[in-house]
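[job 4471] stage=fold_predict status=RUNNING
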Amino acid sequence: MPMRFLETVAAIATPPGQGAVAIVRVSGPDALAVGGRVFRKRGATGHGEAVVGALAPRVQHFGQIWEEGALVDEVLLTVFPGPASFTGEDVVEIGCHGGGLVTRRVLEAVLRAGAGAAGPGEFTRRAFLNGKLDLTQAEAIMDVVLAQSDLALRAAARQLGGSLGERVRGLQSQLLDLLAHLEAYIDFPEEDIAPETGSQMQARMGLVRGELEKLLATARHGRVLRTGVRTVLSGAPNAGKSSLLNRLLGYERAIVSPFPGTTRDTLEEVVMLRGWSLRLVDTAGLREGGDALEQLGMERTRLQLEDADLILQVSDGQKPPEPPAAAQDPRVLHVLNKVDLGEHSGWATTEAVRVSCLTGEGMEALEEAIVDTLQAGLGPADAGDEVAINARHQDCVRRSLAFLRAAEEALAGGIPPEFIAEELRASLGALGEVVGRTDNEDLLGRIFSSFCIGK
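[job 4471] inference complete, writing structure tokens
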């Protein structure tokens, strides 16, 4: 059932800075009245709630914003009567000129006309609480805003369209059917559960478990889509890690020096590579010895390697091969640098991408190898298009899966159905948190606090 908020709120719904147009959004029970107190149609002498309420909905109307008899700006005003609006309430959007000062003046006029200031995510929160969006769709709004790659944008758009919510609700329905069957047996114990019925329940639980496991497996892809592929450049000092970073970025970002130990701390930059967002991390070279500061840099390198999604192991092709420290790690892509200066005979049988960071030779082959490695480790490039859960979803699904496995074990062990039903209820509740079927205000507060003002 839609909620009714008593306060009407307003905020600037476009990014700060100068632009052609900015939007001031007003939402709530008094949105039309607030708009009417400040808006006057061009050529009209009067204004008020009746004037704004009589405007054709979802059509832009040219007029002016007035306050205390003074013209503030010429604007385009659009009315969205509830519940056919983004928030489910009456909404008024004022398109004014995009200067920072004039936009603030329009907002100040609206606030003095009776609206309160909207907090972060306030409009999306109202849309969620009014049933216009489920929680996965609400989160997808910020994913769309923050998307850094085509893949991330496509995945966010699908989630905004409800693909994840639909999948979760389907699993909820299956769990609810299982729970209803057990509840019926508990209420009517004389109707014994036949052995074949128990086997069927076990099979149905297994099917749901399999779907939950598939959903959980998308968490890594979802993290990569949202934050980028954490790509660590590792290798001995002077192997060319900083030169490779500069070559991939297309400009001189890192200091390059012939002296070992130049890179003392990690350096991080983002680059787009064939649809993937790579978070390149240049690290201190690993070697024996070095002063205390260099040792600290190498320790940070080791920590970065533990968290890496992709490791570009850079070696100097002129020098003899070093021991393959992580040759079996599927995250590792070996890059043999300085091939323009010749190659040591010891590398003849080594599988590696051969490049020259000085001349650019082999860089196209390296890009192809990076994409192939990512697809081998993370699945096809579009694997996250339909569903790519985030960290919060991952926690909910993991708990739901644990409760479901406990229910399976209880059923197989002949545990009384009351205990099995309790595990199923817990599994259903944890899964419901994904789409927002929860009364936990702290959870909602944490989610929407990450939104920007005006969303």
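[job 4471] summary: DSSP finds 15 helices and 13 strands in the chain.
[job 4471] exit 0
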